[in-house]
């Protein structure tokens, strides 16, 4: 009985972690549909964003920008500036990686690209460890009080509301981008048929750069939000989430960014709710279970897309 | 001087050569139909012209400039448009979005172009917001051709536009092609259903075993008994 | 001359490590190089092998105070065979649901498996003693050899110091021979298999799975066999490791590093060549060891050095992928380093 009583609160936690998984998963889906491979380095890209933000935060604080918390949130202007800086830096970094590495492997086939991505994943993680060290770095040491949501009997912290809001807003912006802008439509076209996109005169290299920029930016935000939620970051942060992100992406339908959003929330909630029944140490196994189940039952995912 | 000239082009895929020295010209505003048996290299020739397959030797010139082996997005900007035989639309995009993609290099106003395409394919105008993947084969072919026309090309290349279409739909497609021809565009078309095509072509040529073997005015080729027997199904 | 002794002892240690990695690389070559199975879960099979052998041949828990299921003190050979069997069984269980999947799905699934295995090893302390690991794993013939070398040293107290240093580590020399013998046997076996009709089918599957299926082969069965056999080889590698270091814990099998290094070894050595697997193991392990020496002279902290060394391997991998994807040893038959990409026109 006690386990079941905890479920509603766990659902709240799950929506928060699901927000982060969604933002991470969108990038994976976009990379898959437009560049044609599963980017195993995406988790570590998230970590890169999280660490860039920390660095930017200390720079901005050093310049005297105040970080006095806005309202009930745990951060202020300096953090917002750091977030923006981190997003830019991470996008630049992934575009550089494309220009230096992935572009030279364009025709090499999906598996070579995945192997290269694993190499990048390890490289990023160890570059982070080299620059910042292996011990946890704290975003904030203050403890926020969770407020009670009237009527639902669950608690939520202001920072968590912020995370949910960011995910919703960014998802909405992405939707508008894909539907309304020229590049967004070109991205959808390339995802449909990259060869025809070239034939039509679409500048496919430009679209690819935009894909990396958006994926990198969202990854950075996801990583930073992880830091906000967990209060600290570790170099392994990204790789630890990779399995859950891929479970989310496959659940939603690999290649479909909207599927990634749905999948993210489902996996997030599932992982958190599972802790009422099994040890929290097995959360990744829950994600893995969902993954295997989907692959066996419906590999195209819930919002299926042609492979 | 011809608008398009293909000079002794050799090309193929991964070591297997398909074209063994093909010559072809298409003049300004001319409609040329290529016929020939399967595997003769007709599609390969179009891909070679459009930069999807790199010729191993020979030259391809368009409006006086050499375009041999240039990348497709540059060739599109020069004024050649290409409609592949299969998978020639973006299924998850709407009709309107497919057309917009055809005009991608143009950053600005494309309203006039879209209207021109709707004028040519009235059936599409009312379905601007429909996802193309949900449309029938004939409608998709119209979207594919409309997309190709968005940049106002000087040469339109069509790879078997009536393949897999029911006869009445194929007839509609050919009517549209004739209209496009009348508006002054040069058209290079590969067709299995060659009779219709040759009838309205200025010239026709037969491509067999990677080489061009016969060429004549379209209707005359149609009447040629040998051609009829070998390539037009008697 | 003491330096000489130090070098000899180091080379023995180097040889054992490179040899164990070579065994893993051979297993991976069977799965990936021959059959095209994208297995990122190498560390999982390796861990299963190590733990199984340790549990089978290790001392009962009351001897050293842990909690486990096992400790039967069975002979080394039994431990190794059990390790192979256990790893093969895990591969069977994984393969059945996932082998029909596309390559990247298999990759993600194998990452998940390795992670799950590590979690079980870590969390299920009643089985594996959890994070405290397994101690006192017996090394084969250790007692006997140690008695002989100690006796020899006692009987000859006037030996030059460098000789004494080498003799006192003679057990490692024996272990090196053991690893080498296992390697030779596995290499010969795998080469035989590669040349057989069975091996030809595997390569056909890698090159063009649909064509192989259409010619009537039960592709799934062949893939499963390759996965299981390769996993068994990896399990043997794990057993060799466990009995050498005599103490293992879940932390020894940090999934990605073990898996990653073996992949890099195979790619650099030459995918598809069993000789390439061994060559790659030696080369990459050599580079890894060299970075250890170089790093000692750099003004960085220990974690920084560790990170830098892995970065070096990562850059090495990317370099090979871009510049010489076939690896150092070119394939015997004209072959691609990775299965052919979907037909692209340009």
Poorly predicted residue ranges of chain A: none
Number of helices of chain A: 11
Low-confidence stretches of chain B: none
Number of helices of chain B: 10
Q: What distance separates the N and C termini of chain A? A: 43 Å
Task: Describe this structure as you would to a colleague.
The complex is a heterotrimer of chains A (307), B (234) and C (346). Helices cover 71% and strands 3% of the residues of chain A. Chain A is mainly alpha-helical and 307 residues long. Chain A has one domain: ABC transporter involved in vitamin B12 uptake, BtuC (Orthogonal Bundle). In chain A, 57% of the residues are buried. The model of chain A has no long low-confidence stretch (mean pLDDT 89). By secondary structure, chain B is an alpha/beta fold. Chain B is 37% helix and 26% strand. In chain B, helix 3 packs parallel to helix 6. The longest helix of chain B has 16 residues, at 167-182. Chain B is globular. Chain B starts with a strand and ends with a helix. Chain C has helices at residues 2-34, 42-57, 61-64, 76-98, 103-123, 125-128, 142-155, 161-168, 170-195, 197-207, 209-214, 219-245, 255-269, 274-296, 302-323. Chain C is globular. Residues 342-346 of chain C have low confidence and may be disordered. The interface between A and C is large, with 46 and 52 residues.
Short note summarizing the structure:
The complex is a heterotrimer of chains A (307), B (234) and C (346). Chain A is mostly helical. Chain A has helices at residues 2-35, 42-62, 77-100, 110-132, 158-180, 182-192, 194-199, 204-230, 237-252, 257-274, 283-297; strands at 137-138, 147-149, 154-156, 232-233.
């Amino acid at each position: 009985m006690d386990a079941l009583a905890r479920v509603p609160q766990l659902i709240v936690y799950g929506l928060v972690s699901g927000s982060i998984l969604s933002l991470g998963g969108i990038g994976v889906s976009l990379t898959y549909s437009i560049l044609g491979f599963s980017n195993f380095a995406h988790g570590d890209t998230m970590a890169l964003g999280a660490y860039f933000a920390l660095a930017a935060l200390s720079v901005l604080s050093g310049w005297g920008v105040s970080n006095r918390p806005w309202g009930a949130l745990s951060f202020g202007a300096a953090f917002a500036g750091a977030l923006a800086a981190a997003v830019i830096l991470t996008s630049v970094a992934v575009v550089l990686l494309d220009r230096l590495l992935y572009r030279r492997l364009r025709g090499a086939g999906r598996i070579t690209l995945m192997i290269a991505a694993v190499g990048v994943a390890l490289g990023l993680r160890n570059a982070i460890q080299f620059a910042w060290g292996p011990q946890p770095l704290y975003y904030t040491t203050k403890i926020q009080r969770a407020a009670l949501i009237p009527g639902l009997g669950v608690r939520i912290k202001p920072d968590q509301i912020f995370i949910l809001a960011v995910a919703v807003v960014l998802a909405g912006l992405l939707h508008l981008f894909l539907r309304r802008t020229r590049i967004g439509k070109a991205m959808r076209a390339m995802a449909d048929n990259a060869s025809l996109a070239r034939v039509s005169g679409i500048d496919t290299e430009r679209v690819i750069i935009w894909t990396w920029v958006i994926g990198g930016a969202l990854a950075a935000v996801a990583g930073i939000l992880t830091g906000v939620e967990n209060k600290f970051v570790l170099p392994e942060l990204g790789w630890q989430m990779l399995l859950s992100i891929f479970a989310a992406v496959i659940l939603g339908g690999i290649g479909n960014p909207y599927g990634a959003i749905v999948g993210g929330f489902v996996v997030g909630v599932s992982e958190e709710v599972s802790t009422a029944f099994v040890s929290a140490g097995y959360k990744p196994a829950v994600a893995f279970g969902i993954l295997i189940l989907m692959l066996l039952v419906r590999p195209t995912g819930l919002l299926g897309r042609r492979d | 001087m011809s608008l398009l000239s293909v000079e002794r082009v050799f090309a193929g895929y991964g070591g297997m050569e398909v074209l063994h020295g093909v010559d072809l010209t298409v003049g300004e505003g001319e409609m040329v139909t290529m016929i020939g048996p399967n595997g003769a290299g007709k599609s390969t020739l179009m891909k070679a012209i459009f930069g999807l397959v790199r010729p191993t030797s020979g030259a391809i010139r368009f409006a006086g400039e050499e375009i041999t082996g240039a990348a497709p997005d540059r060739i599109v900007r020069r004024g050649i448009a290409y409609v592949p035989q299969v998978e020639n639309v973006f299924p998850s995009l709407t009709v309107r979005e497919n057309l917009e993609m055809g005009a991608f290099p143009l950053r600005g106003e494309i309203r006039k172009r879209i209207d021109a395409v709707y004028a040519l394919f009235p059936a599409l105008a009312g379905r601007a917001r429909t996802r193309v993947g949900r449309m029938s084969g004939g409608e998709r072919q119209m979207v594919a051709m409309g997309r190709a026309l968005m940049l106002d090309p000087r040469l339109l290349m069509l790879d078997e536009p009536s393949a897999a279409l029911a006869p009445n739909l194929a007839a509609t497609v050919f009517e549209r092609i004739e209209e496009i021809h009348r508006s002054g565009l040069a058209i290079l078309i590969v067709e299995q259903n060659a009779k219709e095509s040759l009838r309205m072509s200025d010239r026709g040529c037969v491509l067999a075993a990677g080489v061009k073997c016969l060429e004549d005015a379209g209707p005359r080729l149609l009447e040629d008994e040998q051609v009829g027997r070998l390539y037009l199904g008697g | 001359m003491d330096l000489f002794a130090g070098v000899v002892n180091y080379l023995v240690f180097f040889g054992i490590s490179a040899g164990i990695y070579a065994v893993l690389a051979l297993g991976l070559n069977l799965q990936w190089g021959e059959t095209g199975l994208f297995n990122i879960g190498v560390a999982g099979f390796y861990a299963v092998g190590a733990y199984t052998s340790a549990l089978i041949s290790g001392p009962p828990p009351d001897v050293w105070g842990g909690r486990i299921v096992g400790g039967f003190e069975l002979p080394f050979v039994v431990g190794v065979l059990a390790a192979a069997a256990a790893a093969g069984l895990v591969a069977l269980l994984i393969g059945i649901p996932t082998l029909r999947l596309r390559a990247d799905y298999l990759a993600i699934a194998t990452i998940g498996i390795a992670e799950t295995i590590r979690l079980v090893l870590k969390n299920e302390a009643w089985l594996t003693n959890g994070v405290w690991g397994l101690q006192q794993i017996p090394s084969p013939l250790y007692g006997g050899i140690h008695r002989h070398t100690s006796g020899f040293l006692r009987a000859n107290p006037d030996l030059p110091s460098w000789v004494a240093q080498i003799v006192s580590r003679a057990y490692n020399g024996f272990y090196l021979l053991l690893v080498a013998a296992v390697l030779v046997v596995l290499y010969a076996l795998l080469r035989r298999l590669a040349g057989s009709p069975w091996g030809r089918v595997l390569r056909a599957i890698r090159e063009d799975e649909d064509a192989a299926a259409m010619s009537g082969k039960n592709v799934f069965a062949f893939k499963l066999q390759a996965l299981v056999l390769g996993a068994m080889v990896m399990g043997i590698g794990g057993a060799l490791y466990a009995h050498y270091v005599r103490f293992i814990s879940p932390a020894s099998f940090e999934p990605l590093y073990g898996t990653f290094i073996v992949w890099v070894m195979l790619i650099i050595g030459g995918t598809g060549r069993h000789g390439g697997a061994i060559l790659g193991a030696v080369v990459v392990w050599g580079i890894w060891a060299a970075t250890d020496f170089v790093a000692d002279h750099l003004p960085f902290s220990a974690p920084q050095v560790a990170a830098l060394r892995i970065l070096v391997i990562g850059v090495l991998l990317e370099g090979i992928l871009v510049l010489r994807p076939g690896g150092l040893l070119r394939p015997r038959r004209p072959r691609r380093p990775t299965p052919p990409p979907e037909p692209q026109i340009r």
